[in-house]
């Protein structure tokens, strides 16, 4: 699990629970499987941008707001890319 995956997962979970949504309910209205959302929230997988685009409107935030850390949270750091990895 990468720090970025954990941050994104925690942010998804925080927004979902703040809105009183169950995991299966959010997955259903966003058109993804509960298992997939569970893996995102657990930091096992980083959602592709297309998946975030399905989820974020139901969480009441856009992409910019999603990546702004709430008070007390660490900033979301982009992953580093090792030289020669392309």
Protein topology:
Elements: H1 3-18, H2 23-30, H3 34-41, H4 49-59, H5 63-66
Helix pairs in contact: 2-3
Uncertain runs: none
The oligomeric state is: single chain
Strand content: under 5%
For the sheet with most strands, the description reads: none
Given the structure, what is the number of helices? 5
Number of strands: 0
Please tell me the total number of domains.
Answer: 1
Overall SS class:
mainly alpha
Q: What's the Cα radius of gyration?
A: 13 Å
Pattern of helices and strands: HHHHH
CATH class designation: Mainly Alpha
Q: Give the CATH H-level superfamily.
A: lambda repressor-like DNA-binding domains
How far is the N terminus from the C terminus? 22 Å
Short description:
This protein has 86 residues and is mainly α. The chain is 55% helix and 0% strand.
Please characterize this protein's 3D structure.
With 86 residues, the protein is an all-alpha fold. It has one domain (3-63): lambda repressor-like DNA-binding domains (434 Repressor (Amino-terminal Domain), Orthogonal Bundle). Helices cover 55% and strands 0% of the residues. It has five helices and no strands. It has helices at residues 3-18, 23-30, 34-41, 49-59, 63-66. The two termini are 22 Å apart.
């Amino acid at each position: 699990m990468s720090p970025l995956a954990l941050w994104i997962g925690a942010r998804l979970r925080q927004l979902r629970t703040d809105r009183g949504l169950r995991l299966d309910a959010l997955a259903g209205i966003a058109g993804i499987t509960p298992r997939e959302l569970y893996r995102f929230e657990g930091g096992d997988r980083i959602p592709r941008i297309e998946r975030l685009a399905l989820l974020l409107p139901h969480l009441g935030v856009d992409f910019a707001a999603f990546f702004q850390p709430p008070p007390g949270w660490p900033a979301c750091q982009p992953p580093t890319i090792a030289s020669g990895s392309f």
